[in-house]
Amino acid sequence: MRGSQRKESSITTTQSPQRAVRVRGAARSSQPRGPALFKGVSARSPEVEIREQPNVSEERSPNKNPARRLKQLAAQIRVCTKCPLCHSRTIAVPGEGDPDAEFMIIGEGPGKDEDKTGHPFVGSAGRYLDHVLEGTGIQRSDFFITNIVKCRPPANRTPKGNEIETCITNYLMEQIELIDPHLVLLLGSVAVKTVLSRKSVEEVRGKVIEWEGRRYLATYHPAARFYREDLGAKIAADFGLLKRELKRIQSR
Asked: Which of 13, 15, 75, 119 gives the lowest tally of CB atoms within 10 Å of its CB?
């Protein structure tokens, strides 16, 4: 793992005069790596411009220990009451994986199984990922897996704009900064619209996307193949591309 090779770098990315995000992570190339400055779009709401929370910057002191800070964030997420989703959840799902993970997976939000267990990507979706990783030498534990929203929306509905905004400004952006992955896999339209500001998965799937200093792959959530037979082949092809990219990165 790259933990022993990590050295501190400091990059400031600015979306507007009111917003600057301090990024601390591994210096991996001559190109600065910063998080995408999200502009979230939910399937049922107009475009949402993310506003910085007044006291968030005070909580984001220089992170010399990403693992410890990720644990702190997870503890905050478990008891979070910043948006209405706290009233319908069973257990909040902060995400989990190696703090020094080279790869990250971001989905839409916890499903029924995740809401019960507090762990991301369990059930059939997790088994599909395990199947894809067979023979790559890469384990599920080599990923950090999380979601746009950390609590399950009622009846599995699409997250609303204010729910997305709350989670990404308070939690997701900092998780990405701390992990600083080589490659991020986005699952589903909410993740694609929020992180890449694109209209649909179809627009970006099947290729590596360079965006705001990071590399992304995007596809439909594996669970979609159970109710949309036409997506099965596309999902398989996209996970095949993921497998090739993982091997390529590991061989460097």
From this structure: 75
Q: What is the mean pLDDT of residues 119-137?
A: 81
* Those residues with Cβ within 8 angstroms of residue 16's Cβ, 6 or more apart along the chain or in another chain: none
Please give the Cα distance from 244 to 222 (Å, whole number): 18
Q: Which residue has the tokens 């996970």?
A: 239
CA distance 220 to 230: 11
Cα dist from 79 to 93, 160, 202, whole Å: 10, 20, 36
Domains of the chain: 3-250 (3.40.470.10)
Q: Over 60: is that where the pLDDT of 147 sits? A: yes
Q: Which of 214, 237, 180 is nearest to 63 (CA)?
A: 180
Please count the other Cβ atoms lying within 10 Å of the Cβ belonging to residue 81.
8
197 — alpha (psi -120 to 50), left (phi > 0) or beta? left
What pLDDT score was predicted for residue 63? Answer: 57
Q: What is the enclosing helix (H) or strand (E) of 12? A: strand 8-16
Q: How far is 131 from 58, CA to CA, in rounded Å?
A: 42
- The pLDDT assigned to 142 comes to 87
